[in-house]
Amino acid sequence: MEKINGSVLKGMLESGCNNLNNRKKEVDALNVFPVPDGDTGTNMSLTFSNGISEINKSGSEQLSVISKTLSRGLLMGARGNSGVILSQIFRGFYQSVGDKDELDVKGLSQALCNGAKLAYKAVMRPVEGTILTVVRESSEVADEYVNGNPACSIEDYLDILCKEAKASLDRTPELLPTLKEARVVDSGGSGLLAIFDGFRAYLQGAPILAGQSTPAGKAEALLASGYCTEFILRLSDQGLHLYKEDRFRSSLNKMGQNITIIRDGDLVKVRLNTITPGDVLNLGQRYGEFARIRIDNLQEEQHPSILEEVSAEKEEAAENEEKEFGIITVAAGEGLKKLFTEYRADVIISGGQTMNPSTEDFVSAINKVNAKHIYLLPNNSNIIMAAQQAASVTEDKDIIVLQTRSIPEGLAACINFNTEGDVEENTANMNEAIAHVKTGQITYSIKDTTVDGREIHQGDYMGIFGKDIRLTAADKVTAACELLKDMIDDESEIVTLIQGEDATDEESAEVTSFIEENFDVDIDVQKGGQPVYSFIIGVE
Prior knowledge:
Blueprint: E1 3-4, H1 6-28, H2 40-58, H3 63-77, H4 80-97, E2 103-104, H5 105-122, H6 131-148, H7 154-175, H8 177-182, H9 187-203, H10 218-225, E3 227-235, H11 237-242, H12 245-253, E4 256-264, E5 267-274, H13 277-285, E6 288-297, H14 306-318, E7 323-331, H15 334-342, E8 347-350, H16 359-368, E9 371-377, H17 384-393, E10 398-401, H18 407-415, H19 423-435, E11 438-444, E12 449-451, E13 454-456, E14 461-465, E15 468-473, H20 476-487, E16 494-499, H21 505-518, E17 522-527, E18 535-539
Parallel strand pairs: 7-8, 7-9, 9-10, 16-17
Antiparallel strand pairs: 1-2, 3-5, 3-6, 4-5, 11-14, 11-18, 12-13, 14-15, 16-18
């Protein structure tokens, strides 16, 4: 093949997306730390699937429209650092394509090289041995091949690209000692290789289809011909007791994509794309009665969301009540959401480890806050880039991304926000508070591995201080107490202990007693209800 048009590019993209979706669990498993939050594959899969979904909605077969729509879809759907980088690769690809109707092998090569360059620019401190290395080295080597073999075909180019991407991926442990010690290759680079392999498979006449793990080609059907299913649920008395958003979201994740959940008192507003709307409604009905329901075929003309319609009056009223400041934060767990609300957060985006919100989630939250200056608190290092990307696409508001890397940092920032201060004063005070917080976390190991010379066994509880695994123990209480010894010093004044969903009140009381008996500090105990981490500890 000498040239590709929009139809061929669309086929390549769908094949690449399916291959990534089929292998996302393999990519997730490459997480260096043995914590139950390896989500690189999931983030990349959700990001790329959003781009494909937008392409299918457009109905276009034009190369320039497809590349532009993909870029926008990836930008808004980007989750986690890997998803943001992936969106920048194809943003650079689109910029190079421009208004072309076809790409020859040189144009395709130049587009991918431009994508690699833009991805590097998007990262403040690029690290070699990651997806950045894989996209740069593979695109450069393939471009050199094209320059030396101007008569080569597109298939030849993809063969070289995939071969070099695999070689570059295999070299990543030599560039990052943490990968070498854990005996894995880079997860983001592995996800990118899956996409490239899908491209090549399509051109070879054997496009990758949705895997057997997705019944009856569910993922592929969902992208092409599913249903936008929306409802507003009024929780019953029993539903109020049973409803847990994290569990509800997990159930919905098995049924569809592009999920939005908003809770307002006893009302739960839900929107998602699914090919089994009946199953979704059956799930919702367990918790109460429906106030409104809408199901639209994704292939038909899109209508305003009922979530948007219901909130329109509130948003219109809010336009007349613009305030000086707004705060948007990220948290998982009903207790943490309630706590952030008490600390003046306007919107709490559901997410955190294993549930990285997308750029679009942040943009949607920004649109709900009628304020001149809006602070975004990601509360996770893997969410900061998505927040920054949301800020970059918001033109009519002053968006300030505070680089909170943990829940304790986010809480400290909110506590030190002053409604009477100006933006410079508040930004300085909140950043100063963030800098003075130490964060510890207790979770369990999902596999046997070695990190920083420490042997870790599956099922061990780990004490993580900042980004470092400091200790392992047989139970969560021992791990928490030992980690506290490492975190608290003579200058420490306040310890915040946040109890997770798998920790009991008795276990929390044991840790509290240990602090009281051994340290002269104030103690604030909160029931966060967060998944993954039995305890989150903040020391100030």
